[in-house]
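Re: Re: ligand-bound prediction request (bumping)

Still looking for help on this. To restate: I need the protein modeled with adenosine-5'-diphosphate bound, output as structure tokens. Inputs repeated here so nobody has to scroll up.
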Amino acid sequence: MLKSLLIANRGEIACRIIRTARRLGVRTVAVYSDADAKALHVREADEAVHIGPSPARESYLIGDRIIAAAKATGAQAIHPGYGFLSENAAFAQAVIDAGLIWVGPNPASITAMGLKDAAKKLMADAGVPVTPGYLGEDQGAERLKAEADAIGYPVLIKAVAGGGGKGMRRVDAPEAFADALLSCQREAASSFGNDQVLIEKYILSPRHIEVQVFGDSHGQVVHLFERDCSLQRRHQKVIEEAPAPGMDAATREAICGAAVRAAQAVDYVGAGTIEFIADASEGLRADRIWFMEMNTRLQVEHPVTEEITGVDLVEWQLRVASGEPLPKKQEELSINGWAMEARLYAEDPAKGFLPSTGKLESFTIPHAIRQTQWRDERGTAELSTDYDVRLRIETGVSQGDEISPWYDPMIAKLICHAETRQEALIGLSKMCWDSRIWPVKTNASFLGTLVVMPDFARGKIDTGFIERHMDDTAYEVEPPQWMLDQVAEYFAERLYPKASGPRGLRLNASPQGEVRFSDQIAQYSGRWDSRIGYDQRLYPLIQDDGDAIFVTLQGKTWRFVPARTLGTVGGAASDGAILSPMPGRIIAVSVAKGDNVAKGQKLVTLEAMKMEHSLVAPFDGVVAELDAAEGGQVSEGTLLALVERGED
Ligand code: ADP
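Reply:
Sorry for the wait, this slipped through. Here it is.
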């Protein structure tokens, strides 16, 4: 086994690799950019090397610096993770030429699978079914059109060098072909420097099925069954699961066998994934599943395979890279239960999934499910979890860390393993909905809602699922009154603890009352009644930081502050509270604490989204609080100043 390893990546995958390396006694070296100087992967590694400024093309994508970092720290091997340089054959070769171990396949395998047309030809020769279509050398417009006519519409034009969902055009009718071809070629030339295309039959109601394969340097290849990644948004995977719903044993054997042949055809060593597209209009059938492409690296969604097989794929990668044979034979591998993963992104579904950045002032994801029952607030589902599910979190951040705008906004992968699919999806939904994250916006509520949709629960999925159901997921959770009453009860408890006598006796000698509080955007009030007491539904979802409390409901988190701490007497508490309307940087503070200000007078200037925003006094008064410093970064909803009304 190798003794030291440099991880040429960041975020959750770097942390994931470090965890296994540490368990195996392998010394770890992290690399980091300016933005990641304090990142979790840097904190967790045994050593860390700075490799450049924040933009990835000036740090994580500079192979020479990474190799130099490995040399300088005496690391024996380099693990590329996924993304960045992981499928760069030239980098793999440079690592090997530098006398280091490349934790991945031979550069020749990466190259062979790099171009879509060459890969498809290779696969067809190896007896792997490929999507019907045209892969020819003749790129003349007329010939391409004739081939499309012969395949039958709709067809998909794909750039042979394409990737990341780019360089693809769906064509529904012969008249539209010529224009679509030109635009696809233009995009291919500018994005990939190669305008060659191939034509495929466009599969209606397609499912994305992929097979995990593993090869060693002794010529052995096994598969670790399939995953279904059909839930995609703009060709990006959102929910992944293993095994695939509706897959029967014969179909599984057919596609997993094809995947092993595909890997053998390129002498594959290490972890790889063969992606297939399935025409699922009549269920999954072996004769309607076709090879799409191979990913020559560890995949984002590898944990679901680990959960159902009990294999640590990173451990296998390190063993194979050290020259050891595969730890298990095909017949020793089997499927146990069901696993499902959701990609948690720092993005705001309510604003078209715009990335959200800032400091994670609150970040807690449940590790275990204690409750056995809960009800969807909209009343559409009542679900119970009276069984054991395993929750697993893969993340590269912890509470207090900063989500920077420089990299992929995925902040965590939430994984649930259970005996059955139904149990796994309920557990995953609960995990998403109970994740407490503030003030950074996430898709947690969206994810939790997706996986308990009736069609998803029935396995009626295809790659258009999310788009079709978008309206049902994109709802804003407004704090319901019962929750506000709970918050009021909570604050009342804090103000008048039980120890000092029956709560409420101090509040006008009544066992009930009203408490006002604010989430710094809006004001709320709740009624509490000590004769009723807590509703157990909410209790576990409250986190008290001594001043504010965080409350999470269905994946949305509020931070409530009791009105009195805002300091105003009479009138609404947030009347004069000047809050940052969006994350940004303070570029000017025009007043000092204690200043008299007139209505409309500029207090603080914020720069956000490349624009300046002036925050002004809402009425004549005094600056009672000022919590803004020039140059400071602020998140949305931060209290910057408090203006108290002047004497009338
Ligand atoms: P990229 O390399 O850009 O990711 P892929 O070939 O992997 O491109 O395809 C990306 C996605 O496009 C697939 O997951 C699938 O949703 C869709 N897709 C690809 N080929 C077809 C096809 N022939 N018919 C319908 N959808 C397709």
